[in-house]
Predict the structure of Alanine--glyoxylate aminotransferase.
Amino acid sequence: RAMATSLLRVCPPGELLRPLAVPERLLLGPGPSNVPRRIRAAGAIPLLGHMHPEVLQVMDEIKAGIQYAFQTRNRLSLAVSGSGHCAMEAALFNLLERGDTVLVAINGIWGQRAAEIARRLGANVCELLKPPGKYFTPQDIEQGLVQHKPLVLFITHGESSTGVLQPLEGLGELCHRHGCLLLVDAVASLGGAPIFMDQQEIDVLYSGSQKVLNAPPGSAPISFSERARVWRAPGSDTGPTAPCCARGCSTWGWSCLWRRRWVQGKPITTIITTREWGQREDTALSSWRCAWVAFDAREMSPCCVMLSPGAVPGSAGAVGLEQARLPTITTVRVPEGYSWQDITAFLMDKHGVEIAGGLGPTVGKVLRIGLMGCNSTRDNVERVLGALRDALQRCPRSRL
């Protein structure tokens, strides 16, 4: 032991000898959201092996919870280890082979991200573009399907970078009429806006645990329709029973369609906390009401109520929003003369409240305020309203 110690050249880090201190903050950004005490407590249960029968039972229960939240009876419904990005990759890697054509609807950063992933796996990526703040009509989609004849259409339900909620009605039927699968990103919307996977004929749907579901980051629910699971032509050597490498999937970890089961070695704590959101009173259907507590589309203009005219000095509207507004994340223009970094830093330092700036096409242009799951209360709205009023009075403002 003494000899081994004498070989050490890196000293023990002194900072790890101090107790960990984590401040209490109200997370009203685009994610993660605050985790209820009961779900946090679930992470402290005794550790079990990932193949123990109790853990397998929990995995089955999570599957049932995903089927409920997604409103689907799909057999291939599971949660992959990782963030929404991991679910995005799992969906694209399982549906596309090198040379396949995918049509990506882009009106914010998440369409851009999906297009980049698809290019890296060798797909032929066609882009259907809308300016930030706009959404796609069925006519837009059909025009793209006719022009490009894709095998897969990717579209974002809740575009958190711009605050747009994409209408999905009729898109599944439209895609299937043109021989195309519908892949939907619902990371920022699931549980905060109605979505009916089976009724809307969505072939692949995924989300993330750390948004409206109020679970810790690290688990991403995903579901594949039967059409998606067996979509390759019967008898093809790249059919659903072929090895992952034969189907062009370049990663073993996300090969859901080939292995048809959960990834081995999934973190047990993540499994347990993922299960707990299914018992919340505001899960899925009932949580749609919570998302509208503060920002009711029938009473408010498309701009954020906290910066509507007369509410706060330096009022500003939303970025290009017209009809389809995402209820879980509201985007508002940075008031003229202010720095978004100053405002977000002030709220964090002085009020213990997190909001965020823009992302992708909205960087430097907007503030993004999230109201998701248990955070969707009038008290929280009043708290962030007061913090913003304080920030606009005390943060520096340029007159130029």
